[in-house]
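Tutorial, part two.
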Amino acid sequence: MSIPLLVGMIQSDRERLHRLSTEKQEIASDDGKIKVTVSGMWTKLPELNKQATLQVGYKTKDMYLIVFTDAKAAVGDLTLEKHHQITRDRMLQKMTDASATEPVSLTIAGHPALQDELSGTEKRTNVVFLHTTVDDGDHFQQILAWTLKSRWQQQNKLLREITGTFRSEK
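Running the prediction step on this input gives:
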């Protein structure tokens, strides 16, 4: 193989990877109602959690996001605060050395939301979850974005941005 051809192939791969890392794509749940916007490096990962409505990840960077949908009619008379607290407590119980920040109020896609960080050890792995609950009117949408604790500082901002792109349609 000639040197110019090899250099051209390497440049082409670099350009393709750069394009994938900077271009944005929308990934939707199987029914098309739940969506997030991510870079081209993210893919659907249906093996993350069988009960999740949407499951995406960027495996080489150990970044993942899943969404659970709870119809309000099925969970009784829960408020956003109560639903968030219940799911938060459940997650903290599953981890060892677990801790959490105080929830903060925010708005995602025009809907009220609560968000906090949960960290601990799960299956012998130190992780940090960005735990977000959105009240979209008919449903509570629980968004869990996470990475390894060792990568949290570098990936925290990106996981928050992706969570902020969440949209649900009726």
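DSSP finds four helices and eleven strands in the chain. In part three we will examine how such features are distributed along the chain.
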